[in-house]
Structure formats: structure tokens, C-alpha cells
Amino acid sequence: MMGRSHLIIGTGVSLSVLQLMGMQVTAPAVTVALIGSLLPDIDEPNSLLVSKALPNSLIRLLQTILLPTAVFVYFYVQAKPWNLLLAILVGLVSFLPSRSLRKVLMFVIGLGLVFYGHAFAPWNLIAGSLLMLCTTLTHRGLTHTVYGTAVWGGLLYSTTHQQGPEIWVAGGIAYAMHLLADSLTNRGIRPFPPLKWRIRANLMSTGTKHGAVVENVCIVLTLILAWIAFSPLFL
């Protein structure tokens, strides 16, 4: 399913459930729902979440910087022959396609969180480790499982439960809705690897005309649910 559909369905359903359960729909809850609705696709560098966080303009800027950096390393780093090897490595990275460069950036950001982020918040160590791990995963792998949902929900609960249940409930539901939506596709998901059992309804293929129809139906159903949940506020 396309990122736009995941965003609408995951966020719409999670916030509607909060409203129907009598919980407050706060700005942090909305933010976490938006992130949670797209987060399982962090294992795909060209997904909506990753491409917005690391846009093409940033990738082009990185490519522009890397070549001069390689030249600088070769001529000014006094550690022969390692300076040559490092310069070649940096130069080669600059020619990687945008998908691969996003993976490199994700890994570097994760590495930074592991080594320096814990000074600001202890959870940055876990976040950085997970971010680096995601660069090694295949699409619809570990992040599209019950384990991934549990990790995300557990992180949210442990860091936000003192502020009330709205944040972790919204984030958890949005994440789970992403998996449920992907289970409608022909490929489906494997919720409990290494078990090969898949959940798939074979209703659509992402990017096809029929798939777009199924996605639009799901969006309409989400909007109906949102109307049922929020219309009393305006009547």
C-alpha cells in the first residue's frame, strides 16, 4: 500500500479510536500517530517517511560535499596509505544511488545517536541501534511483524505513560494499522518470523489501478469512521 494511504488510514483510525474511547486527542498523540502510520516502512529508503526525512535535496547536497571531502582526505590526512583508501571509499559513496545513500545516512545518524545521543536522552541509544539495524533489513521484514509492533509500543509506553495513555495508544494503533493494511496486498506480511505463515488477503498489488481502488475504499471507510467519532463535537 502507498505511503499516502498508510498515513491517512493509520492516523485516521488511531485518532478516531482515541475519540471513541474518550481519550484526549492531543498534539503529541497526533504526531506519534503520523509517525507510527509510516514507521514500518523505515526499512525501505524510498518510502514516504524516509524520503521526507532525508529528501532528494539533502542527498544531492551530500553528493556535492563528498567529492571535495575525498580530495581533502587524500591530500591533507597524513596517514598513508589509509588516506588513499579512505578517499576512494568516500568518493565511491558519492556515486551511490539515492536509495543507497539514504541507507548510509540512516546508519551514520544511528551511529551518532549511539555514541553521542545518550548524553541527551538514554533512549537515543536504543533508537540509534534500531536505526542502524533497519538499514540491514529487507522490506516488509522485521518492522512488519508483531515483534516490531511490540518494540514500538513498548518504547512509547515506557517513555510517555506518565503523560497519559493517549500517546502510546495512538502510536501503537497507527503502527498496527500499517501492518493490517499491508496484509490486504498479494504479498502480505509475516507476523511471526521465522515462521513462514503469512497474513494476506490478496486483494491488491501496490501501484496498480485495482490497488488504487482498494486503497481509496479503505480511505473512505477511514473517513466514515472519523466522521462517526468526531461529528458529535460539531453538532
From TrEMBL:
It comes from the Bacteria. GO terms for molecular function: hydrolase activity. Keywords: Hydrolase, Membrane, Transmembrane, Transmembrane helix. The chain crosses the membrane at residues 57-77, 82-98, 104-123, 213-234. InterPro entries: YdjM-like. This is Metal-dependent hydrolase. It comes from Paenibacillus xylanilyticus. The lineage of its organism: Bacteria, Bacillati, Bacillota, Bacilli, Bacillales.
